[in-house]
Specification:
The complex is a heterodimer. Helix content of chain A is 0%, strand content 50%. Chain A has no helices and eleven strands. The radius of gyration of chain A is 13 Å and the shape is globular. Chain B is mostly beta strands. The chains are: A mainly beta, B mainly beta. Chain A binds chain B through residues 31, 33, 35, 37, 41-50, 55-56, 58, 89, 91, 98-105, 107-108, 110, and chain B through 30-31, 33, 35, 40-45, 48, 50, 86, 88, 90, 95-104.
Chain lengths: 114, 111
């Protein structure tokens, strides 16, 4: 069974610090996503990525967030200056093609900002 | 912006019962996903629907595009089915649009 892998599984960081969350999508997938879930709340879309550029982003994905695919396999989410309200589970997901394809989620990276 | 509503929010049932979870959305979509989230947090895709009905083992998912409504059914429920079930939709706008999620239905199956 193919899987999306995420690292770290859990990170604690000081407010104002930069954080990079890493994801390795499934190798033949073309569309990549970051979602977040604040504790006790619903999952929210952050950003989608296709053909080496951002395809869509939500209003949550402001200037403190960035994504990149530096080496053709990893897909990273960077938070430049973390705030307390960035504490959440961050999920990476990938899809092979949009129509008729299953979306695969990673196990998540739990970020705690203190 | 699509609004996704699920009901019930919480459901406790006895092993063997037939379970139905409902999802409604406000704007036309290109696809609807049913997802399962376990206590550890991981999310697994159960179904992706754009029309009709799909079945996988004891799980059945249906969608009515005209009524903007989908249901997830679990037959012969088992304690291992206990999880949060989430409905999520992709808008009809095309492109790599992100999913809009419902709040989830917390299901507990008691032995």
């Amino acid at each position: 069974e193919p899987e999306v892998t995420q690292t770290p599984s859990h990170q604690v960081t000081q407010m104002g610090q930069e954080v990079i969350l890493r994801c390795v999508p499934i190798s033949n997938h073309l569309y990549f996503y970051w979602y977040r879930q604040i504790l006790g709340q619903k999952v929210e879309f952050l950003v989608s990525f296709y053909n080496n550029e951002i395809s869509e982003k939500s209003e949550i994905f402001d200037d403190q967030f960035s994504v990149e695919r530096p080496d053709g396999s990893n897909f990273t989410l960077k938070i430049r200056s973390t705030k307390l309200e960035d504490s959440a589970m961050y999920f990476c997901a990938s899809v092979q093609i949009l129509s008729g394809n299953t979306i695969y989620f990673g196990e998540g990276s739990w970020l705690t900002v203190v | 912006k699509n609004e996704v509503e699920q009901s019930p929010q919480n459901l406790t049932a006895q092993e063997g019962e037939f379970i139905t979870i409902n999802c409604s959305y406000s704007v036309g979509i290109s696809a609807l996903h049913w997802l399962q989230q376990h206590p550890g947090g991981g999310i697994v895709s159960l179904f992706m629907l754009s029309s009709g009905k799909k079945k996988h083992g004891r799980l059945i998912a249906t969608i009515n595009i005209q009524e903007k409504h989908s249901s997830l059914h679990i037959t012969a429920s088992h304690p291992r089915d206990s999880a949060v079930y989430i409905c999520a939709v992709r808008s009809g706008g095309g492109g790599a649009d992100g999913l809009t999620f419902g709040k989830g239905t917390h299901l507990i199956i008691q032995p």
